[in-house]
């Protein structure tokens, strides 16, 4: 590859190149470039182009050295080659999607703001659910009282209406109605839509970050292209200086450009690492919000399922209560049906209460995790 080729070329008539290829300042960077060429076919193509043009320039200059002169054609060849190499660099850079350098962290922190706002709305929903559950327990007490009164009044049958207390409790149950108001259902739909929309945004952002991570290989190619282009430029200028037999100029050029060449590889690698760390940090924040949002959506799905079951049980008992109120002879039949459902009704209330507590805990935990990620996020 280019680094090895440069060292071999340095063993010829231009001693300066030996230092350039094997000097500790560049050795690691050239080795890294060679390794990247082995793994990256696109970089191999660039390297082949660079080698061909560099060899062409060196050969042309070598001819000039043999006659102890520098031809105009040689100078033209050198200039054209440098321009071509710069164009190759531009081409590779343009092919890389570097939009992350044009977008600050506004989008990320906008998502973070939405996440925290949505979590607060969901906590409000959990509070509303607790109120509904309190009303459901009140209805549970009423219906259990109706069952208790029915058992007492069934043992003390007298002429006339024998189920006065039972029927009164059934009327109270009917008047209490559904503990889950229309406002509660609207709040649920609003919160669920917000969380679903949030998940969609997070998945989209994560997909973009994943694509950026996948393109890091291309970015690494860019850094290697920049490095080798700069290296070859110095290589050619050194040959030019040697060809015109001006040792002071050789020393001056080598000395002046040693620092830039030595630092460009390290700068590219530093930029690459910084870029990778920034993407991975963003991805960690996004992933933590995604996990929290997924858990919340799952909790909301479970809550909706339990609410639906509870409303089915309430509706069934309400129908039996109405039936008994309108037909006193049907009280026993109605109470028997209610007895079959009251245990399931109580179990659903407890399950729903546990789901509400779990949802609240998970939301608070997710908020804590995201805050920790933001604190660790590189400034």
UniProtKB/TrEMBL annotation:
> Where does this one sit in the cell?
Membrane
Q: Which UniProt keywords apply?
A: Coiled coil, Membrane, Transmembrane, Transmembrane helix
Keyword Coiled coil part of the UniProt annotation:
yes
Q: Which residues form a coiled coil?
A: 300-369
- List GO terms (cellular component aspect): membrane
Q: Does the keyword Disulfide bond apply?
A: no
What superkingdom heads the lineage? Eukaryota
Transmembrane regions = 222-244, 250-272
UniProt cross-references to PANTHER family, sorted A to Z: UPF0496 PLANT-LIKE PROTEIN, UPF0496 PROTEIN 3-RELATED
| Family named by the database record | Belongs to the UPF0496 family.
Q: What is this protein called?
A: Uncharacterized protein
Per the UniProt record, the lineage of the source organism begins with:
Eukaryota, Viridiplantae, Streptophyta, Embryophyta, Tracheophyta
């Amino acid at each position: 590859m280019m680094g090895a080729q440069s060292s071999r070329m340095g063993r010829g008539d231009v001693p300066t190149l030996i230092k350039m290829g094997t000097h500790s300042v560049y050795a690691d960077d050239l080795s890294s470039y060679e390794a990247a060429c082995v793994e990256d076919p696109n970089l191999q193509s660039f390297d082949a182009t660079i080698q061909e043009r560099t060899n062409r320039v060196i050969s042309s200059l070598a001819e000039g050295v043999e006659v102890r002169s520098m031809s105009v054609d040689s100078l033209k060849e050198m200039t054209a080659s440098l321009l071509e190499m710069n164009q190759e660099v531009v081409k590779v850079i343009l092919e890389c999607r570097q939009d992350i350098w044009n977008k600050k962290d506004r989008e990320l922190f906008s998502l973070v703001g939405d996440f925290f706002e949505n979590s607060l709305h969901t906590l409000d929903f959990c509070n509303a659910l607790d109120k509904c559950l309190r009303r459901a327990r009140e209805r549970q007490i009423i219906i259990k009282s109706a069952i208790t009164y029915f058992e007492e009044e069934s043992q003390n049958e007298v002429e006339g209406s024998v189920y006065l207390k039972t029927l009164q409790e059934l009327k109270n149950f009917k008047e209490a109605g559904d503990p889950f108001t229309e406002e509660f259902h609207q709040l649920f739909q609003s919160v669920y839509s917000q969380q679903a929309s949030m998940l969609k945004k997070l998945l989209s952002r994560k997909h973009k970050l994943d694509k950026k991570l996948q393109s890091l290989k291309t970015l690494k190619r860019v850094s290697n292209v920049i490095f080798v282009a700069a290296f070859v430029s110095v290589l050619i200028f050194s040959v030019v200086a040697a060809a015109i037999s001006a040792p002071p100029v050789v020393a001056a050029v080598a000395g002046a450009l040693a620092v830039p060449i030595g630092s460009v590889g390290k700068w590219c690698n530093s930029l690459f690492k910084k870029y990778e760390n920034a993407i991975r940090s963003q991805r960690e924040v996004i992933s933590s919000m995604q996990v929290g949002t997924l858990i919340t959506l799952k909790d909301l799905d479970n809550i909706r399922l339990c609410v639906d079951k509870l409303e089915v049980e309430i509706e069934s008992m309400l129908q039996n209560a109405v039936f008994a109120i309108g037909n006193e002879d049907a009280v026993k039949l109605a109470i028997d049906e209610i007895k079959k459902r009251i245990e399931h009704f109580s179990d659903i209330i407890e399950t729903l209460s546990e789901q509400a507590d779990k949802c609240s805990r998970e939301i608070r935990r997710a908020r804590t995790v995201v805050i920790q990620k933001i604190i660790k996020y590189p400034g």
